Amino acid sequence: YHDPVTGLSNRSDFDIRLSSFVDDKEAGTHTGVLMIVASDDIPSVNEYIGREAGNTILRTIGEHLKESVSAYPRALVARRQGQEFAVFIPDITADEGEAAAAHMFQSVQNLDWPHQDKCPLNFYMGYTYHSEVTNGSNMLAEADIALKQARLQGKNRWVKSSDVITDANTLSRPLHEWEHFLEEVIKNHGISLHFQPIFSVPDKDLIGHEVFVRFVSGEELLAAAVVLPMAERLGLMPQLDRLILESLASTNRVQPFNGKLCVNLSIESIQTSGFMKWLDSYLTSQRKLSSALVFEVAEYGMKVDDQSIRRLDRLTRKRGASLAIDGFGLESSAFGYLSSLPLHHLKVHRSFLRDLDQSPDNQFYLKSLAQLVHNRNIQLWLEGIESDAEWQQLSSLGIDAGQGYFLGELLPKPVE
Questions:
Q1: How far apart are CA 255 and CA 329, in angstroms?
Q2: What phi-psi label fits residue 224: left (phi over 0), alpha (psi between -120 and 50 degrees) or beta?
Q3: 3 state DSSP class of 28
Q4: Mean pLDDT score of the chain
Q5: pTM for this model (two decimals)
């Protein structure tokens, strides 16, 4: 029940103790906060200076976490897996929970690592609070969803589940019910497509839309941030990506699209031979739609399996579609693939927009990146534009196009 590297509880011990706490009906009603803290950089440390250094960092993270919650004697701290740690604090108010989370997250960020300049450590955290703790698995699932959102928002970020999960009861489903729900979604085409407009810089001409998906659950529409982590766990992403593209073709037959259509594809789908064979047939039969499609793949996919992405590139070029990299800038990977992948665009992650007018480093990064990709006939797009002040800066930095709620919200049909 103990992790041999850190000396903390392991996953089994944490889950057993959390379940015992929840199942103690004699103890009455309890509040609780649960956090999952992760650093994705330990493999880089292992490669750069050795596995023992990576283990030392894991032990140090555990020590920081334990010390930061020392004021709560009943707090549970565990290394759940790899680079992920879980912390549960019972009988705490909402304000105290957020304060404890902020203190704990700051503590791990202050970790003393002498090679930070060459091999930086970045941290992410998912947070959830329950005023009545009744299901430990639900809390873990909520924190996990929040953690995934934190990773999408940029380095050293933490996210509260309440900011991404609108229906707390949604996660009360056990995994087998999620499986049934998703199978019904796939069988009955239970999704709703939404579209966000993309505009050229600086002319503000409409050049296309990004396609988003919502999942029909009774009278509600569930966000992708809630459903897709479950689909990934169940291995259902290829079926969902296929459903989205089929729905897009049906929509196009009713009302043909103008401009480019950006559609995200999961790395799991790209790695599945059956899906790729289907995609080839789909693009062949949808020739007019294919010329408008730009498949966006998360940048981390280049680390996970760049060969599968290159196979997708060859297929899309053969059938008239295009390929792009989404969420660019979150990974520390080299830019070498920019010279060998004929991308339509790079979409820079929204975190580079945050306080852009006060961040010369981000301005320099974006301007340099624009010069680099323009030399390779690749466009540079930026997501998450939320104000006129942000929009006004883009032209001077060499950005070609942008999207965000300042420019246009998600709508059930494209802007004409």
A1: 35
A2: alpha
A3: coil
A4: 88
A5: 0.67
Measured in whole angstroms, the distance separating CA 105 from the mean position of its chain's CA atoms is: 19
Q: Other CB atoms closer than 10 Å to residue 105's CB: what's the count? A: 22
Q: Which residue has the tokens 């789908």?
A: 269
Structure tokens at 376: 């390779």
CA–CA separation, 232 vs 238, rounded Å?
9
- Give the containing element (helix H, strand E) for 52: helix 51-68
State how far the Cα of 30 lies from the Cα of 212, in Å rounded to an integer.
38
Residue 300 CB coordination number (10 Å): 16
Side chain identity at residue 297, one-letter code:
V
Kindly provide the residue ranges of all beta strands, DSSP E only, lying in 245-344, ordered along the sequence.
Answer: 260-264, 293-298, 322-328
Q: What is the C-alpha to C-alpha distance for residues 326 and 280, in angstroms, rounded to an integer?
A: 22
- pLDDT per residue over 67-118, tens digit each? 999 999 889 999 988 889 999 999 888 999 999 999 999 999 988 888 877 7
**pLDDT tens for each residue of 264-296:** 999 999 999 999 999 999 999 999 999 999 999
Nearest to 85 by CA among 75, 94, 95: 75
Question: Predicted confidence band at 60 (pLDDT cuts at 50, 70, 90)?
Answer: very high
Q: Where are the beta strands (DSSP E) in 74-151?
A: 76-81, 84-90, 124-130
Could you check whether the bond before residue 256 is cis, i.e. omega within 30 degrees of 0?
Answer: no
